[in-house]
Amino acid sequence: MLVMAECKASAACWPTRPDLSTDLRLGLSLSTSLSSSSSLQAAESIPSMPRNQVLLSWPPIKPFLRSALAASASRRRRQQTLFVKVYMEGLPIGRKLDLLLLDGYDSLLVKLCNMFKTPITYADVYQQQVPGVKAAHFLTYEDQDGDWMMVGDVPWNLFLTSVKKIRITRTDKC
Amino acid sequence: MTYFPEEVVEHIFSFLPGQHDRNTVSLVCKVWYEIERLSRRTVFVGNCYAVRPERVVLRFPNMRALTVKGKPHFADFNLVPPDWGGYAAPWIEAAARGCVGLEELRMKRMVVTDESLELLAKTFPRFRALILISCEGFSTDGLAAIASHCKLLRELDLQENEVEDRGPRWLSCFPDSCTSLVSLNFACIKGEVNAGSLERLVARSPNLRSLRLNRSVPVDTLSKILMRTPNLEDLGTGNLADDFQTESYIRLALAFDKCKMLRSLSGFWDASPFCLPFIYPVCAQLTGLNLSYAPTLDSSDLTKMISHCVKLQRLWVLDCIADKGLQVVASSCKDLQELRVFPSDFYIAGYSPVTEEGLVAISLGCQKLSSLLYFCHQMTNAALITIAKNCPNFTRFRLCILEPGKPDAMTNQPLDEGFGAIVRECKGLRRLSISGLLTDKVFMYIGTYAKELEMLSIAFAGDSDAGMMHVMKGCKNLRKLEIRDSPFGDAALLENVAKYETMRSLWMSSCNVTEKGCQVLASKMPMLNVEVINELDENNEMDENHGGLPKVDKLYVYRTTAGGRDDAPNFVKIL
């Protein structure tokens, strides 16, 4: 829901990697596409078919083209990778990680903790102040504008479209 | 005229351009009716249920070419349930009994079986052309029968059919004596074909002008074939998706260089951008180009290629081309007459790289544009008004804004004014599809100005019955009206019942029509078939009732001389 609202406001916030965003939204849009935006209220006020039927009959393209494009999209999704550099503060040598192999922030955290052998936390968890778990590091990333941001604020799919580098920062520095 | 010899009258009739005129002269007197019917060679049946096949064959025993269309257009978008009907068998069987001179058969949206294809192949000794479009129900075994038995076959054209694959044997069934092929299109066949058989078939077909391969044909086979067909005018490529060895690309370039007559290219299934430069040399001579199966090509790949295609008249492309790509089209393709831009990402609230700006650019650059199909995610009234002024020659205008009910992207207003400008300026408009946020006002404009309109497609539009009534009242030449998800009910349906007799068909799905309204229509107009299609679905039972009566899920109304059909499934009620 958040993603759709943000991107209705300005087309500029859509990333300049159209292939990737297309494929990511294949996962994103099935659940949100019919529930967001005021312009869709017009459609919803009209008696309409059950949702699963609307998706097969709209947009009005022939089945041949529809299945060709769907097959093509899933083929491209499987071939795509998103390798980003990961640096841990204090270590001069970084690692590389394919983010498309992960399915969310939790798996990112698990993967990085394994890679760097240290407990790491990110925005959501950090704010919760979990007692007993005092991580020495937390996760930040560089986005397309070159700004360093806290990992975890935006939905995973949106994060994937804007992340350029990841940096594991020391808690006491922030 | 009474003493005019029949042969002379028949000769005069042979100058009549179309079926419509021949139908008219048939009405003059009995003598003319007889002369006309016995000399009619081409018969077109727009709705297979409008007339009984036996009656057609009886009236035109000497017909050579028959075209029959089955399911309504919205079947293309999965709106017609499977097993609804549209069976080819009665037509082929009737022709087999009464018209053995048949040479050509064209069928669209029909259910064709292997048995029918075998009957076809074995019955008509002079059979030479089979064209099947958006059909289903047959397998490659049926094609094998055609290949084996139709000794004079010139055309086998399979467009977007659902064909069950039973192996590559069918292509090898063309006998060595078959040298008459002019057109072969098997792009929709899913399975592999034997490359050797294909090459040999092409080698013994000196008249081959149109060849459309399927995606299994390797690039080297394509190169070999092209070396043998210097007179080829229309080509659908095979596999250009993989990354090939350099030699393969060079062979391909050499092969294309031989094809000086090539005018039309299609295929490009998931084509790799690496193959495009090898095709550039042919681009300057192309009049038709279909790249709609290549989501692998991005905007710069597409524009580099299209900028070479200066003679292009017909372009089908995905929206990956983006607005800036359409600007290149506008400046390069001055002869463009038909443009289709399909959505590469078809989830509703997704992102589409083409907007109203691309279309405005096209309208400025391509003054000859007359046919448009454009999928985009936003449009404005201002753009549509500009487009209408720039291109008053539109005969077909289909705009699909991907999000149903979306307003003008700048003003948030309905798009009534924009479409109003289109119908006002384009006086020759015959086909129109509208989308976006639309009130009854747009229908008032359509009814007032779209006097030549023959086909209208409406989705998620209008406020009340008045909308549909405007169209039914004003569009004198309307033949096909198809409506989905719009608030038109019984009052609109019943406002002008006599008009349905002048039309081929009406389709309404997910509207506000009730069964009572349909029954009234059926009782007033006995020469119509009023088909109520209600699929049994738990969800539907929960729908609100209008006036306490169940709403009709799908309604299909068509004029007919054949009465109710006896092949309807149990979910279709014919009133």
TrEMBL record, chain A:
Gene Ontology CC terms, in alphabetical order: nucleus
Alphabetical keyword list: Auxin signaling pathway, Nucleus, Repressor, Transcription, Transcription regulation
Main subcellular location of this protein, as a coarse class: nucleus
Residue intervals of the PB1 domain: 81-173
Entry-linked InterPro entries: AUX/IAA_dom, AUX_IAA, PB1-like
Highest taxon in the source lineage: Eukaryota
Gene Ontology terms describing biological process: auxin-activated signaling pathway; regulation of DNA-templated transcription
Keyword Zinc-finger (UniProt): no
Compartment(s): Nucleus
Subunit (UniProt): Homodimers and heterodimers.
Function as written in the Swiss-Prot or TrEMBL entry: Aux/IAA proteins are short-lived transcriptional factors that function as repressors of early auxin response genes at low auxin concentrations.
Family from the record: Belongs to the Aux/IAA family.
Record-given protein name: Auxin-responsive protein
Protein species of origin: Brachypodium distachyon (Purple false brome)
TrEMBL record, chain B:
Compartment(s): Nucleus
Source taxon at top rank: Eukaryota
GO CC entries: nucleus; SCF ubiquitin ligase complex
GO biological process entries: auxin-activated signaling pathway; pollen maturation; SCF-dependent proteasomal ubiquitin-dependent protein catabolic process
Any matching Pfam family: Transp_inhibit
Keyword field: Auxin signaling pathway, Nucleus, Ubl conjugation pathway
Gene Ontology MF terms in the entry: auxin binding
SUPFAM superfamilies: RNI-like (SSF52047)
Keyword hit for Ribosomal protein: no
Pathway where it operates: Protein modification; protein ubiquitination
Domain F-box: 4-45
PANTHER family: F-BOX/TPR REPEAT PROTEIN POF3, PROTEIN AUXIN SIGNALING F-BOX 3
Subunit-level organization: Part of a SCF (SKP1-cullin-F-box) protein ligase complex. May interact with auxin and auxin-responsive proteins.
Record's protein name: F-box domain-containing protein
Source lineage: Eukaryota, Viridiplantae, Streptophyta, Embryophyta, Tracheophyta
